[in-house]
Amino acid sequence: MMAIAGALGGAIWGGLLAKRRNGNLVDILQYATGYGIAFGLLAFFASLAILRLVS
Questions:
Q1: Do the Cβ atoms of 19 and 28 come closer than 8 Å?
Q2: Using one digit for the tens of pLDDT, what is the confidence trace for 1-55?
Q3: Eight-class DSSP state of 6
Q4: N or C: which terminus of the chain carries fewer CB neighbours within 10 A?
Q5: What is the pTM of this model?
Q6: Are 11 and 33 contacting, i.e. CB atoms less than 8 angstroms apart?
């Protein structure tokens, strides 16, 4: 669940960042995809670490 939230948050952040930098549609999609994957992986590994520490 945390990885999905991270991926969605990263995609939104990346899209807004590209739009703020006056990017066209392809730039917005590329930033959204890149940030979505990066934040999704970061949240996935964070959730694994949290599960290891709690259990």
A1: yes
A2: 999 999 999 999 999 999 999 999 999 999 999 999 999 999 999 999 999 999 8
A3: H
A4: C
A5: 0.88
A6: yes
Degrees, nearest 5: CA angle 51-2-5:
170
Token code pair at residue 45: 């590994």
Cβ atoms of residues 3 and 40 within 8 Å: yes
Count other Cβ atoms within 10 Å, centred on residue 45.
12
- C-alpha–C-alpha distance, residues 33 and 29, integer Å: 6
Question: What Cα–Cα distance (Å) separates residue 43 from each residue in 12, 25, 34, 54?
Answer: 15, 26, 14, 16
The span from the CA of 7 to the CA of 4, in Å, is: 5
